[in-house]
Amino acid sequence: MRLLFDGLCLLQLVSVSCTSRPEPEQGRSSDEHTAFFADDTVQTAVPTETPATGASGSIGNFVKASKAATPAVVHIKTTYGASGNYAAGYGQGYDSPAGRGSAMASGSGVLITGNGYIATNNHVVENASQIEVILPDNRQFPAKLVGRDPNTDLALLKIEADSLPSIRLGNSDKVQVGEWVVAVGYPFSLNTTVTAGIVSAKARSIGIINRPSQRGYAAPAGNTGIESFIQTDAAINPGNSGGALVNTDGELIGINSAIASQTGSYAGYAFAIPVNLARKILGDLRKYGTVKRGLLGVSYPSPAVEAQYLQQQGLQPGVVKGVYITGVLENSAAAAAGLQEGDIIQSIDGVQLNSSAEFSERIARHRPGDEVKLTYLRNKQRRTTSATLKGEEATATARGNASLEKIYNKLGASFAPVPAAIKQQLNLQAGVLVQEVRRGGFFDQVGIPSGTIIAFINGQAIDSPQDIDQALLSAQNGIIQVLAIAPDGSRVVFDFSLGT
Question: How far apart are CA 197 and CA 100, in angstroms?
């Protein structure tokens, strides 16, 4: 199964609530129902006439959800320079007329406030020289890029307009597998299009954010991608990227970002960024222009190898309810809280954890200085602690001071230059040979044998053991992604987590 960032198509959807807003549910703040940002002025919604269709979740409520969502779905058009440096395969791209040498692409967006703030995907607007927003009533506005976050594939735009319809927020934590959902967007540059399906999974990690691209494996220095997608079978296609996934009450529960497909078009599954994470990220972009990340400072197996790693530690994946800690960064929030390698974090602020993807999302909702309450197991004994999260700069400094020897001990491998004859045979411009793999290390655990050639780490070409040193030390957080060539000539991609 190929994924969107693999040259297939990322999608966008947008939705907005124009129905009168109900009273807040018990346990949910009125702010959550009415405004995306805490200091927003809430716009008066336009009532919609909908038949009495029963409880939320019934098929009949598709009409209600569509009427509530479509007024806030916007069409985003982007223009790029002569190089056409847009994210190929992520949106709906096309050449400009008259052979002017520029390129254009198309996506979707969600009006999240009445005064013109719009949520979309980072990949929709990245590297764009011009961004244009077209409202459902065909009004057109130039858009300003307020900020973007490649690590969650989110971006925030602003247009100069007031009294716009805006989306009503749901609560992605309360979304249930099997729940009916509706997607709204501009697939294939068509006008507003609505599709429906169910939530087929939650906290899904598919290894797509900050993945090495087709164009030279360009990627940030240190893969800090946060993936805990809502998976749905609502039909999403190229051009949908950046739009909204809504529940049958018309509430935003996710920003659609990717599809799993072998053709580039809808083939069964799509993935949305949970709105509870999006709210924090977009709020930071509005207030600071960048994302303020609170970091705990622990490492853990990446989702792709989590079950295998636990088995190698003599643990049954189905029995371990939580996240197995493989390392604690010195001088980090985790170290100050007393966490140790081998601990199993079971809950954050009372919320049970079932996967590392869910864990990374929960931490990503916090800023530096936030305190989180942790429940964990050590030697089968249940314990509790509190940790005050640190910022990226403090965590990067701590990691930079950590010895490479410790990192290499975790990897369990040594490296050497690739002989010139092998480079010529495989037509390689760069690469480092895995010379030795030690029992119990990460390479041994994931089955990377000696003789493998490391070609890229986090998108950077590797041509010497010193390049590996630099790549490991520059990775500030999250997952180090390695592209390698196996001894049989096949290409493999694997992840190594340094911490969150």
Answer: 41
If the chain, 500 residues long, is cut into consecutive pieces of 10 residues, what is the mean pLDDT of each piece?
31 29 37 52 42 46 90 93 49 45 86 96 93 94 95 95 92 94 88 91 77 36 69 88 93 89 72 95 94 90 74 76 86 93 93 89 94 94 95 62 65 84 78 86 81 83 79 62 81 69
Dihedral sign for Cα 379, 380, 383, 387, please: positive
Q: How far apart are CA 212 and CA 357, in angstroms?
A: 20
Q: Which residues are catalytic?
A: 123, 153, 241
Contact 290, 284 (CB under 8 A): yes
Residue 55 token pair? 């409880």
pLDDT at 217: 30
Q: Which domains are present in the chain? A: 4-287 (2.40.10.120), 298-394 (2.30.42.10), 404-499 (2.30.42.10)
Are 200 and 232 in contact, with CB atoms under 8 Å apart? yes
DSSP structure class, residue 72: G
> Can you tell me the distance from the alpha carbon of 113 to that of 17, in angstroms, rounded to the nearest whole number?
11
CA distances from 308 to 32, 304, 352 (A): 39, 9, 22
Looking up tokens 């997608």 gives: 229
Query: CA angle at residue 14 from 218 to 59, to 5 degrees?
Result: 125
210, 481 Cβ separation under 8 angstroms: yes
Integer Cα distance of 1 and 476 in angstroms: 30
Output the pTM of the full model: 0.70
pLDDT of residue 243: 92
Q: Could you give the CA distance from residue 34 to residue 166 in angstroms, rounded to a whole number?
A: 9
Q: What is the rounded CA–CA span in Å between residue 9 and residue 319?
A: 37
Nearest CA to 132 among 77, 67, 202?
Answer: 77
Which tokens sit at 500? 């969150």
Handedness of CA 479, 118, 243, 24 (dihedral sign): positive
